[in-house]
Fold this sequence. Notes:
Layout: H1 2-13, H2 18-29, H3 38-47, H4 52-76, H5 78-88, H6 92-100, H7 104-117, H8 122-131, H9 136-171, H10 173-193
Helix pairs in contact: 1-3, 2-3, 2-4, 3-9, 4-5, 4-8, 4-9, 7-8, 7-9
Amino acid sequence: MFRKLYDWTLRWAGSRYAEPAMGAVSFVESSFFPIPADVLFIPMCLSRPDRVWRYALIATITSVLGGIFGWMIGHYAFDLLARPALEFYGKLAAFETLKAQTGDTAVLVMLVTSGLTHLPPMKVVTILSGVVSFDLKWFILSAIVARGGRFYLLAFLLQRYGAAMAGFIERRLALIIGGLVVVVGLIWLATRMI
């Protein structure tokens, strides 16, 4: 099953709709969507190494724009959109505690770490940044540095080592999927305990 999904993703990443789809996923991932743009970015770079810099630029721009949208949700529509979701999941008290402990330095650090590593998730940090009215200019600059750094570093690595990485993935796909399932399970358990 995973082999078919992997092959389908690689084929789709080479289609003429790949760039707009990756841009759309990159935009919504930064503000509310749970799946990272890497799901399309990486296979696209593997299938077209001659376009990695173009893909990195598209992903960076759309991710930063999505982050601005997330900031606006937090700043202008928190009570309408985010608060009901937090209440539904029983996370409003935890969010309020985080908000009370968050200063500009902490938000800036979270923006950079989430932009580079997805920890904490980018959408959480973008919305939180809007809620605490983090300076929009600094928000945009940090998002450009973090998201651009991430996508351009990935583009470099995929262009340079992509063929070897693709071969490694194809030979060990079942092991990689098993490892990802374990990591996702551990993250789920950790979030349930918080």
